[in-house]
Fold this protein.
Amino acid sequence: MKRTWRFWIALWAGKIVTRGLLVTGKKGTTLPGKIANWIDPQIMRHLSMAYSDGVVMVTGTNGKTTTANLLANILLEAGKTFAFNQAGANLVTGITGALIQNTRWRGSSQANLALLEVDEATVPKLCEQLSPSLAIITNFFRDQLDRYGELDTTVRLVRESLPQGTVLVLNADDPLVAQFGMNHEGSLYYGVERTPDSRSESIETREARFCPVCGTALDYSLFHYGQLGIFECQGCGFHRPEPEILAQSVCLEEGVLQFRVGVTPFILSLQGYYNLYNALAALTAARQLGVSDSIIKKGLGNFIPQAGRMERFYLSAGEITLTLVKNPTGFDQVIQTMISVDKPLRILIGINDLAADGRDISWLWDVNFERLGRYEEFIHQVVCAGLRAEDMALRLKYAGVKEEKLVLMHSLSGALDCLLTERDESEVVFVLPTYTLLFPLRDLLEQRQDKAGLSHSQVQDCREESSV
């Protein structure tokens, strides 16, 4: 497709704005992309033509940021260069901005491969302009219903948007994802044999109680979490596909995930069995891109979590784990991770209801906070912050957490002070914000980490010790 004068004006305008933003210390992704798309609505199509090794897309409701960053770390370990919207700007404007940053003034790309994290609602718009060579689909859970609508609508739009020529990397254990491979040649599946938390019965929120093909209730022989597990439909025969990449011998020790695929052992310094799926998705994609298992093993093993994804901070009061919460299934898995630590807990939960968080916070009533209520003797304190702090505290009270252990604090700095003032060495601290509170809290934690006097190398040593 021939590049038009609109393309060149859009590209140069985007690069000028990017340069200006970077000079002022800003990231420079969304605004350049917004301007470039206004000038040339087809700019992503033109930019994608420069990637001779193709475009890798990562999408899904949960885990796409961690999966994309895990794959990026593996590719870096393999010595590959690639365009990447690492800042997490995964809408059209952010993706365009990232591609512009990787494009020279004369229109050629600085890399042969593009790795793009793509918001699930953005997939149709992206695929209108380019055909991903590889698409990783992590899972589908209800998320921001006021923005996305019902889940089956999101699933249908993503499924119908994917070109037949795209190789799909699919979560075999999620029936909503596994269905994508039924009529799509070139599908690769990853899955989990079982984890220590896998059960034959489940009371968790499930998005796929019924077969996506015929509507019959699905039978499960094993649940991992949510609707993820080993399933079969007695009506039409739809079942969990046999994964090419299967995690076995799964365990979590001292915050480190251990598993093997075939005869090769892998480790990942992330808490939570849901991160196992992120690692498997990245592993499957890396193999498809020709990366050896020895390199993949290094890339997974030395991975440092990105902002707010089980990210650890080291303060004078001790270690704190920061992780984003945004929907029932994700929050349930974070609760499971906290309980699995099997130590006294202090928790800060920050809930906002701004546009990026989702205006509708009724999803909090679908989270299984009752598990915290049953674990109540180990809960030393829960600080509730954010615009909907009162709603969060009320939900926890109904879940069985004693009122005297609940604290309302709208000031984020005050909430951290409250959380840490009476902490002792035996307690584990988690900070759980929704999206618009994530980076303000992260900035405060970084400032306090700096005030603790730890050098960059000391922080790295702490991270390495915690992953040993």
The longest helix spans residues 5-23. Residues 26 and 211 are 46 Å apart (CA to CA). The chain has two domains: 5-189+266-301, 311-466.
